[in-house]
Design a protein that fits this description.
Helix 4 links the parallel strand 3 and strand 4. The longest helix is centred in the last third of the chain and has 20 residues. The chain is α/β, with parallel strands linked by helices. It is built from 8 helices and 8 strands, in the order H-H-H-E-E-E-H-E-H-E-E-H-E-H-E-H. The chain has a single domain, classed as Zn peptidases (Aminopeptidase, 3-Layer(aba) Sandwich). An 8-stranded mixed beta sheet has the order 1-2-4-3-5-8-6-7, sandwiched between helices. The radius of gyration is 18 Å and the shape is globular. Bound molecules: zinc ion (ZN). Zinc ion (ZN) binds next to loops.
Length: 288
């Protein structure tokens, strides 16, 4: 009994180091719980329920949770918004930040539940919290769920990415930003047909690190070599000089339609992105 047990423990330790305990099925289940709340635009009763769910789950996983409340000036007037920050690990050194948005686009004419757009990033980060809980981290890892990623009208410099613009400005002002070693944003990563584009605003060194991790794990076919620029929640941090990267699959036909529903998603896609992000975290923690 002693021999096989030792080998099993060794195998499990190896698997955990590679992030193999990130469960796509669990991430999809978290996503399902968010989508079950219905449309979740900023300021709605549904998004308030989701805020309670996110903060409660993050606290249950042992994170130190901060609720970052602010009022956004939008084309439909002032809207109360909230970023949720969950901190794991100790020390006062540099930090890796994993982010994504949890709001869904405010739409009057259709019932938009944003399974992939808003839902997937929410579920992905909740599963990240579960897999970071109790880890012996070399540095701190922060998870941020952004509010107000979506524009109320047409996307512009002042309409859209409200939460990330607010937090990047706050962190630039309070001295937090220089501590950010890397910020990795995820958006629409649950698509059955997963193809992450190489977002070309993103910091080149981070792109290399992530694409190499994906190749080493055998997932190169999901991490495309087509360069394309996408404005997303990483942009305000890039503009303030922080290294940041966006992981997004923008080839998604139901985007911003009533067809963005759970049946378009696949647990396997969450698993791929989860394992690649965990492997990237491991490599980032080896860097100074
Ligand atoms: Zn969207």
């Amino acid at each position: 009994m002693h021999g096989p047990k030792t080998i099993l423990m060794f195998l499990l330790a190896g698997a955990a180091a590679l992030g193999a305990d990130f469960s796509g099925a669990s991430a999809l289940e978290y996503t399902r719980r968010a989508v079950a709340l219905g449309p979740r635009p900023p300021g709605s009763a549904a998004i308030r329920k989701l805020q309670t769910l996110i903060a409660g789950e993050a606290r249950a996983q042992g994170a130190r949770v901060e609720e970052d409340n602010f009022t956004a000036q939008t084309p439909i007037g002032p809207v109360a918004m909230k970023n949720i920050i969950a901190r794991f690990g100790g020390g006062s050194g540099r930090v890796v930040v994993l982010t994504g948005h949890y709001d869904t686009k405010h739409m009057l004419k259709i019932r938009f539940v944003g399974a992939n757009d808003g839902g997937a990033s929410t579920g992905f980060l909740l599963e990240m919290a579960r897999t970071l809980a109790g880890r012996n981290l070399a540095g701190q890892v922060w998870l941020v769920w952004f509010d107000g990623e979506e524009a109320f009208g047409d996307w512009s410099a002042t309409d859209g990415i409200y939460g990330s613009r607010h937090l990047a400005a706050r962190w630039a002002g309070d001295g937090t930003l220089p501590r950010v070693k890397a910020l990795i944003n995820v958006d629409m990563i649950g698509d059955k047909n997963l193809g992450i584009l190489e977002e070309w605003n993103s910091t080149a060194a981070l792109r290399k690190l992530v694409w190499q991790a994906a190749a080493d794990l055998g997932y190169a076919r999901h991490f495309l070599n087509s360069l394309s620029a996408v404005e997303d929640d990483h942009m305000p941090f890039l503009r303030q000089g922080a290294p940041a990267l966006n992981l997004i699959d923008f080839d998604y036909p139901p985007w911003h339609t009533a067809g963005d529903t759970l049946d378009k998603l696949d647990a396997a896609s969450f698993t791929v992105v989860g394992q690649v992000v965990h492997e990237t975290l491991r490599r980032l923690q080896r860097l100074p």
